[in-house]
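Q: Please design a sequence for this.
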């Protein structure tokens, strides 16, 4: 079964967060969202718009495509 795009996005956000040694609370504060919202993204529960994905990537300082591709 194929992995959903929401799950892929969440996995990639989690990888970025962990690679920077950040907690969900710290990254959520940096992104201007609640830790609960960020946790929902990481679990693949949030249905973000393409504009939101683009803005999230910009806030993380990475290319948008890297959030949507399985690595």
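A: Design:
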């Amino acid at each position: 079964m194929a992995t959903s795009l929401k799950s892929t996005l969440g996995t990639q956000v989690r990888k970025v967060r962990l690679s920077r040694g950040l907690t969900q609370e710290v990254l959520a504060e940096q992104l201007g969202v609640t830790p609960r919202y960020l946790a929902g993204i990481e679990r693949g529960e949030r249905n973000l718009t393409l504009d939101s994905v683009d803005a999230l990537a910009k806030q993380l300082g990475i290319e948008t495509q890297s959030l949507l591709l399985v690595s």
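Q: Thanks. Anything notable?
A: The CA atoms of residues 31 and 60 lie 8 Å apart. Residues 5-19 form the longest helix (15 residues).
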